[in-house]
Amino acid sequence: MYLRHFFYLLLCTSVIFSCKKSTSTIEESTAFFGGEIINPSSDYIIIFKSSEIIDTVYLDDNNRFKYIFNNFEPGLFSFYDGKESQSFLIKPKDSIMLRVNTMEFDESLVFNGIGEKENNYLMDMFLETEKQEQEILKISQLEPIEFDEKLSNIRQAKLEKLNNFNKKYETSALFNTYAKANIDYNYYYSKEAYPFINYSQTEEAIFKKLPPNFFDFRSDIDYNNKALKDYRPYVSFLRFHFNNIALQEHFKHSKDVSYNNQSLDYNLEKLKLIDQKVSDTFIKNRLLYYNMIKFINASKSVDDYDTLLKYFQQKSSNTQQKNKATKLVNSYKLLKPGKIVPDVVVIDKNEKAQQLKDIIKKPTIIYFWDATDRYHLKVSHERANDLQKKYPEIDIIAISINNISNREQAEILQRNNFGLTNEYLFENQDKAIELLSLKPVNKVFIVDKNAVIVNPKANMFDIMIENELLGLINN
Questions:
Q1: What is the pLDDT of residues 411-429, one digit of tens each?
Q2: What share of the chain is helix, strand, coil (3-state, %, to 5)?
C-alpha cells in the first residue's frame, strides 16, 4: 500500500511540474489520465472508445504518459499499448493514474488517484471472472438444477461483495451500472452457455431436459442498452444469447440435433432474430456484422455466402460494414478450392520480390503472423517447425502482415529465437490482406505444388491438418 501511494505522489509531482494545469485544478468538464508502462510494447498508447480512436499518446523517456480529457462523455474508455488493451472508467474531475507491466498485463494493472477505487474494483471483477472460468466449466457438467444452484450462489456472493463495497465507499451511479451489469451478464452468459459446454448429451437433448424456468432471466434482458454497448460482458452475452435462441428455433424445423455453425439455415435464423429483437442501430448493426463475418470465416460452402450476404444487406443500415462484407465474400470466392492463389507480391529476406504463386514448388502450407500478436507469432512458428520436421515433403511459408522492413522483420524473428528461412513480407500489405482475406491472422492456406488452393481455411493446430497433408503428399 505504501509503495502504491509513493508512486502516486511521485507521478503527481511529475505532472504538476510538467503541465500548465495541475491535476488538483481539473475543471468540471475535464479529467486526467496518465501512468507508467513497464516493458512497453511500443512507444505510445492508443486511447479509444467504441472502436473509435480518441488519441495517440506517446510515452516519455521514463515510459510515462499523460492525457487530459476535455468536454467528454463519461463512461468506459480503453487503452491499447501495441499488444493488449484494457478498459477504464473515467468521469469529469477524475484524476486517474495507472501502472502496468506488459509481461503480466491484466494481473499487474493497478489504478491510483481520484477514481482509483472504482477502477480497481472493476479490474478485480474482470480478473475474478477469468479465474472462475474453469470452475464454471466444471459445474456445467452437473445436472441443470444443481448447476443452476451453484451458479446462483456465485452470483449472490458477487452481489453481496458489491453491496458491501457500496456501503464502505461513495460510489457513482455509472460505476454501479457497470459493476451490476458485470455480475448479471456474466451470470446470464454462463446460463446460455450451459447447453453448449455440458458434454453429457447433444444440445437438442439438453434443451429438452432443462427446467421450464431455466431461461427466465431472458425477460430481464435489455437488448438496446446504450450505456453497455461497448461493455465486454454485455457484448459477449448478446453474441452467445443469439447463438442459443437461434439454435433452439433451428431445432424446431430441422433434423439437426447438435450445433453446426456452418449451417446456412441456422445463421439465417440468427440474423432474423437479431433484426426482430434489437432496435438500437449501433448494437443491431454490430451483431449482424459480427455474425455475418463469423459465418464467412467458418463456412467452407462458398455457394452459401451470397444468400447470407443478401439477407445481411437487407437488415443492416451500416454502409461501411455492408461494403466490407461484400468485399470479403468476393475475396473468398477467389479463394475457393481449385483456384490458384491470388496475385500478390512477396519479398524474401534478400529483398527479392516475387509473385506468391511463383515461389510454390511443392505442396505448401502458407501461414501469417502479426508482430503485435507475440503469442500467435510464437506458437504458430513453433507449430510450423514441428510440422516441417514431420513432413519434409512439404514447404511451409510464413508471411508477416505488417508494414515493416526486412531488417525489422529479422530483428523481430531473432528476438523470438526464429530464423529467416521461408520468411516473407508483402510488397503491398493492404492489397494482400484484402485479396487473401487475412482477418483473422490465424488463417492458413494449404496449396498443391501448382499453387492451387486445397484448403483456404486450414487450422494449423487441428490434428486434421495432418490428414490433409498426408492426402496431398500421397496424391
A1: 999 988 999 999 999 999 9
A2: 50, 20, 30
